[in-house]
Amino acid sequence: MLLSRVANYLFWIGRYLERAEYSSRFIHTHYESSLDAPFKDNRRVMLNPIIEMFGIGLNSGDFKSEENILNKAMLNMDNTASVSFSFSKVRQNALNARNVLSTELWEVINRYYHYLENFEVKTNESGQLFSFMKTFSEHAALIRSLINSTLLHDETWATIRVGIYLERAIQINKVLISTIGEIPRGKSQKDNQLTYYMLQTLLKSIEAEDIYKKLYPGIPNPLLVVYFIINNNIFPRSINYNINKASELVNRLFGVNNLSLLREQPFVFDINKLASEVNYLTMQDLENKSMEFLEKNIQKIENITLTLERDYL
Predict the structure, then answer these.
(1) Burial class (CB in 10 A: 0-12, 13-18, 19+), 20
(2) Taking the model in full, what pTM does it have?
(3) I need a surface site. Which of 119, 167, 255, 289 has the fewest CB within 10 A?
(4) Where residue 82 falls among pLDDT bands split at 50, 70, 90?
């Protein structure tokens, strides 16, 4: 059985790794989309989700600071939402849990941490930052692969994976909230074009564009896109999939196999209850209420993680 403090380190390795990886892809996708926005005056609309997600304050219309958006969101260690800050926390927690991790996993985390520490953009060139994001995505994929292939699939592995699944569900919620709020409500041709472009960007930002097109050919529909991202139970980047996977591992970790035991452990009960709620969600439940559902859902997941830390870690 893992010591609670070691379990805490492992849980946060998973959370911070997933947070950093999602942040990097979100920044890359939205910044790239801002360069190709269908109308010149919509560039700011495409940048707004980055500004909102990462708490970056820029004066309206200050497009000379676009590269600064990337710098602050990717590299600024004073910004606790930045990619570099999150990955520094991956390394810090991995160092504290070093004795239960494989050498291969630790070496990749440590090596990439030092790469980040020495990375410096000497000029405000977005090309350098795009290269940084590509390198980060490759290392994040390698780290996840090593978690799966070099650790016994015991409590150590399961605790990291619970962190990954819960953080991914939180990040998908945040991506949806930050994007849906910017989608135009008008019905003009210009609004329709921008809506279509923003839905494409949303799908790209969670690596879901190809799967969505395969399942639903044609022009993306806002409600259907949101429902797909929330509810598809066999797509690894849906909220449903990740909450259910976290629930399965939590039940395994705590040896829960009946309802009476569930009720004795608030954290385990809450995550199973949330999994059931998402499983039975219908498209009608989201119609004109997508934002309300997402805001409540993210609060429930955050409360679940807080209960886990308070009672078990």
Answers:
(1) buried
(2) 0.89
(3) 255
(4) confident
